[in-house]
Amino acid sequence: MNLLSSLLSATETLTEITPTRNLNVLYIILDSIFIVVFMALLIWQKRYQTALFALFGGVLYLVVDFGGFYLISHTRTVYINGELADAGGTFLVLLWMSLSYGITNFAFIWTLVSRDKYAKYWVFLIIMWWLICPSIAELGGDATITTVRTTGAYHGWMGVAMVLSYLILIIVLMKKQQPFVDVIKLFLIGFFVQFGWEFALLINGIRPMTTLSIQTLLVNSCLETNLGMPAIYLIFYLVRKRRGEDMKKISKQEENQAAQPTTI
Fold it and tell me: By the number of CB atoms within 10 A of the CB, which of 119, 157, 230, 259 ranks highest?
């Protein structure tokens, strides 16, 4: 109990963070077009596994955001034209937001974990869009949509879960003669994918600058995506042993090669 109490005390400051976004309709339209084009590029290059995992990320984010944050914990709020949105309006906004960041985040992670030869192109496209889209969207006028999420109900527990997940991964790695993943690189991938879009939101004014903005940026980057990185790598390892990027079943020889430790 003392250890758990210390962990919760150490993460107490996380409960004060309230991520907020202010945006307009043009931002949503432009971003939706980009997501469709980006998915089409993945399919054109036969990155079927990446595309499926990215889509899975979008659906997962929607379940967590609308189902968990909005319906269950009541920590997600959406305002449209200054008025509190009903469930339908909230769902539509969160549908776009979840698919947008879920698809780009998970594609970002998968291309780096899989060491895709075009990873630098995929990552560049994503980061460039995160940074530039808000500037283009200014042509659409003032922000009329605001999303707010309080973190006091769960951020501390997310921190505990992240520590435990990495602890389990490290114990497994210590039992192996040759590590199959570099845990520091895995953490850095999780950190920078979250940091990329959090930073883009902040410098473009979509996330307002407050006394907690830097804390929000750093804590969310350390915690929110990294919470699932050990599980994401496990999914990657199990899927890649059986299917190639083009989703074709791999041969027995390729399966044996895939089973060999390959450190990212």
Answer: 230
Query: Dmax of the chain from CA atoms?
Result: 60
Strand-pairing partners, residue 197, are none
**pLDDT 10s digits, 155-199:** 788 889 999 999 999 998 898 877 778 999 999 999 999 999 999
Structure-block tokens of residue 4: 């758990």
Alpha-carbon distance values, 38 to 48, 74, 106, 121, 122 (Å)? 12, 32, 13, 11, 9
Give the global pTM: 0.86
Asked whether 27 and 137 are in contact (CB, 8 A), the reply is: yes
| 88 token code pair | 């339908």
Give every CB contact of residue 109 below 8 A, 6+ residues apart in sequence.
Answer: 189, 190, 193, 225, 229, 232
